[in-house]
Design a protein that fits this description.
single chain, mainly alpha
Length: about 200
């Protein structure tokens, strides 16, 4: 006998669980949050929680997927409404820095211990790096970026810098705005033509 399709209540509850769990993971780190804690936070029984998510890794995995899909849709909407490639690239890095600055570093260090989640994020990162390369190449064609640079390397340098900011906890010493401004000045401005520098300075 096939399982009955989930009711609207169950669908709504599942979304609430995902949102609550991801908030808890980001605030406290993944390891510190138990399934009991999530059930108590939502005032539901642990049995009900386990009927929807068999374990914490499944909950984390589905939560990460939902968040990434939301971020992708938000970015696609921004791209749809903005023609200027410089604004698109700045917006992407700004969103990334907001994410880094608002999450407990334990979340990022512990997530790699969940193989299914780590594999998904690695695939997503590779896709994002290729998308960024495409935008940089578009910027070259539009006269914003220097054509002699390797735009396979540049996005990876940006990702490496952001990872270092997290591991060295630089965001605790300086405001996120100051970190972002310096990041953009070093990584992006160094790639710019005079036209690109002018547009970048105006955007910032």
């Amino acid at each position: 006998m096939k399982n009955a399709p989930p009711t609207e209540y169950r669908k709504t509850l599942k979304q609430k669980i995902l949102v609550t769990a991801m908030n808890c993971f980001k605030q406290k780190g993944i390891k510190a949050v138990r399934m009991d804690d999530i059930a108590n936070e939502l005032s539901i029984s642990k049995r009900t929680l386990y009927e929807i998510f068999s374990n914490k890794e499944q909950l984390l995995y589905e939560g990460v997927i939902v968040e990434r899909q939301y971020q992708r849709e938000e970015m696609l909407q921004f791209v749809k409404n903005h023609d200027d490639v410089m604004q698109i690239i700045i917006h992407f890095y700004h969103i990334r820095f907001q994410e880094l600055g608002s999450v407990n570093p334990l979340f990022f260090t512990e997530i790699s211990k969940y193989k299914r989640v780590a594999d998904y994020l690695y695939a997503q990162q590779e896709e994002q790096l290729q998308n960024r390369r495409a935008f940089f190449m578009r910027g070259v064609r539009e006269g914003y970026f220097l054509p002699q640079l390797n735009y396979e390397v540049v996005p990876r340098l940006g990702e490496a810098v952001m990872n270092y900011i997290m591991s060295a906890k630089i965001y605790q010493q300086y405001t996120l705005q100051e970190v972002f401004r310096n990041f953009v000045s070093v990584i992006l401005r160094g790639c710019c033509t005079e036209k690109g520098k002018k547009m970048l300075d105006e955007s910032l």
